[in-house]
Amino acid sequence: MKTIKLLNTFNSSEIFHFRKFLDSPYYNEDASLNALFGAIEQFMKSNTSEVDREKLWEKSFPNEDFDLVQLRLRLSYLLKLAEQFLVIHQMKEKDIDYQIRLGKILSKRNLPKHYLSTDKKITAWLEKNQNSGTIYNEYSFQVERLRHFHMEKQTKRTGENNLSELHRSLDIYYLQEKMRFLSNAMNYQQERNVEIDTGMSDWILRALENSEYLENEVIGIYHGFYLLFSEPNDEKKFLFLQNALKENYFRFSFDQVLVLYTFLQNICIQYVNSGKADFLEYLFSVYEDIIEIELFNEENTMTPWFYKNIITAGLLSEKFDWINQFIEKYTNLLAEKERDNAYAYNMANLNFYKKDYHKTIKILNQVEFDDIVYELGGRWLLVRSYYELNEFNSLDSLLGSFRLFLLRNKVLTQKNKKQYLNLIRFVQRLINIPPSKKDTLIKLKERILNQGNVANEKWLIGKIDELMQ
How far is CA 409 from CA 192, 372, 401, 404, 414, in A? Predict the structure, then answer.
């Protein structure tokens, strides 16, 4: 149900205020909708994934016979009220939007004294937020447009105008947004290998590069990303832009600065994957910046992919003490259901990279993973640890239980199962070939490469090459 899906996104404060919103006859003239919302609240608190329509009706309207048409109609009305509430509530939360809209209304009604009072509040907001970058640029343009509208509406023409300020604020806001979306387009082109029509970008870039607007920190940084995407292997540009972003991140909204740091990560990962080891250090330094400014998400929690990526980069860079401190300090920012698995797996992985294989095995033998990704990762860590310790009897037994786990598992796709079953088969063959049998090792390597669809193929090939040397 669309209504319930929307209401499920409300936080506790929004639920509280929406209840008051429904109590107001100005917005809601149908008292039955209050009862319907109350029943929906009960279902939401019970974390029920599917709401039975008849049960919902019974809880909402116990004295009425079930009527599916009426239920759908009332849910539709409630949805419209919820949408209306979100707009009004957001405007109430963001006072500058309210003041700009109010200023236009007062000007239209020819109330210059009232308008002047509103304009003073707007000016105070601008002065307070003049370092907020993208937000300031956007509202500065909206305010100058409002002031121009007001001046045009005055019956007594004084000759006063703000056209210069209006054009300057429009230029800054337009260039900011143009360069932002141009950077997005260039990142998308590289990720998807597609061409995107970016309009008059070439002409605008030439004009921008010959103007004073590049001195604007926000526009300058977006322009820097354009240059970096044009020449991503330019380390000087990369380091300059990384430093500029770290010093000016507060000038961007949370979503915008998150995107910009994602761009930096993508550029680094692209070059790490192509064999340019220097960019691994750069990637790690980007992660350090993100942690320093606590750019996790708006609820100050950490996503599993970020947690995993930073640990991977740190381990590859051999920043073992740093990663140990990171795991101890930041695991609690993961969702509660993920913490135990993430902590155990990554501590085991850290010890594996430190070549303390006995400790890796000890940690993994003391935990039962309830997440398939960690389960597979943990078993694969055990396989490599036993291999490095030359404990081939234990490894052979582990491979047998690993194979049985895969065959019985109902979560993995057939493709994933096949990848790991092939891996197990080739590892079993590998540990049974003496290093002196070079010809047999060469044939095994060829079979692996021809097989395809083998999990962790790179590790297998690496171990064969080690034995052959």
Answer: 33, 9, 12, 9, 10
Written as six digits, the tokens of 430 are 């590998």
Nearest residue to 427 via CA among 450, 459, 469: 459
Q: Can you tell me whether residue 335 is helix, strand or coil?
A: coil
CA dihedral 235, 238, 244, 246 (to 10 degrees): -110
Q: Rounded to whole angstroms, how far apart are CA atoms 444 and 91?
A: 67
H/E element, 127: helix 112-128
Cβ neighbours, 10 Å, residue 421: 17
Which of helix, strand or coil describes residue 27? coil
Please compute Rg for the chain using Cα positions: 30
pLDDT at 233: 73
- DSSP assignment, residue 367? -
Q: Which residues contact 289 (CB under 8 A, 6 or more apart)?
A: 242, 245, 246, 261
Q: What residue ranges in 102-215 does DSSP mark as E strands?
A: none
Crossing angle (nearest 10°) for helices 372-388 and 392-408: 160
Residue 74 tokens read as 């009332």
Q: Using CA atoms, how far apart are residues 103 and 224, in angstroms rounded to an integer?
A: 37
Closest to 278 measured CA to CA, from 288, 287, 268, 286: 268
Distance separating alpha carbons of residues 62 and 465, to the nearest angstrom = 75
pLDDT for 159 equals 67
Structure tokens at 25: 């006859």
Integer Cα distance of 241 and 391 in angstroms: 49
In whole numbers, what is the pLDDT of the chain averaged over residues?
Answer: 91
Residues 6 or more apart whose CB falls under 8 angstroms from that of 152 comprise none
- Interval 81-120: pLDDT, tens: 999 999 999 887 678 999 999 999 999 999 999 999 999 9
Interval 386-392 mean pLDDT = 95
CA atoms within 13 A on the CB side of 440: 11
Q: What are phi and psi of 165, to 5 degrees?
A: -65, -40
Q: 3-state DSSP call for residue 62?
A: coil
- How far is the C-alpha of 273 from the C-alpha of 266, rounded, in Å? 11
Phi, psi (degrees; rounded to nearest 5) at 11: -85, 180
User: Under 8 Å CB-to-CB from 198, ≥6 apart: which residues?
Assistant: 181, 182, 185
State which amino acid sits at residue 329: K
CA distance 384 to 390: 10
Region 355-378: what's the mean pLDDT? 93
